[in-house]
Design brief:
- 36% of the residues lie in helices and 18% in strands.
- The protein is of the alpha/beta class and 148 residues long.
- Strands 2-1-3-4-5 form a five-stranded parallel sheet, with helices on both faces.
- The longest helix has 15 residues, at 130-144.
- It binds ligand CA2.
């Protein structure tokens, strides 16, 4: 049994309440339930967190070392701006999958750049809330394959 951290960045607490045409009507609580069930059904557990603060996200990534087998990270807009989060993922050495609800490559140019992608084992985007379970599946496969 392994534990995985599902970490969410700024404004994702608003999911399901605004801009449903872009982000759908599923709330972050709904996504947490789906992730929890998905992990439990496969004999694993998750810790689910959200913060609007860059430093708190850095702390959560640091604290994951030695505790979680992997991180499913939707860093929201910090994906496109934050060298600090990239450095945190690199220094924690916890396998991390970058994920997004929307297909960032089909959106504005500024969303095409990701600092996190340099540090992540892979990137999943564009599948709505299913991006979360796809990211967890990728982390479980990675862990099972014997990577650290
Ligand atoms: O598609 C994703 O998951 C994003 O990470 C979402 C971020 C965006 O900045 C990234 O480029 C792609 C934005 C999250 C904002 O979520 C909201 C939810 C409801 C209403 C307003 C914003």
């Amino acid at each position: 049994m392994a534990s995985f951290l599902v970490l969410n960045g700024p404004n994702l607490n608003l999911l399901g309440t605004r801009q449903p045409e872009v982000y759908g009507s599923t709330t972050l609580d709904d996504i947490e339930q789906v992730c929890r069930t998905f992990a439990h059904d496969r004999g694993h557990s998750i810790v689910f967190q959200q913060s609007n603060h860059e430093g708190a996200l850095v702390d959560a990534i640091h604290d994951a070392r030695g505790v979680h087998a992997g991180i499913a990270l939707n860093a929201g807009a910090y994906t496109h701006t934050s060298v600090a989060l990239m450095d945190a993922v690199l220094s924690s050495m916890v396998p991390t999958v970058e994920l997004h609800l929307s297909n960032v490559h089909a959106r504005e140019e500024f969303r095409h750049r990701s600092y996190l992608a340099k540090a992540a084992i892979g990137v999943i985007c564009g599948f709505g809330s299913a991006s979360y379970t796809l990211a967890l599946q990728a982390l479980m496969d990675h862990t099972k394959a014997g990577h650290d």
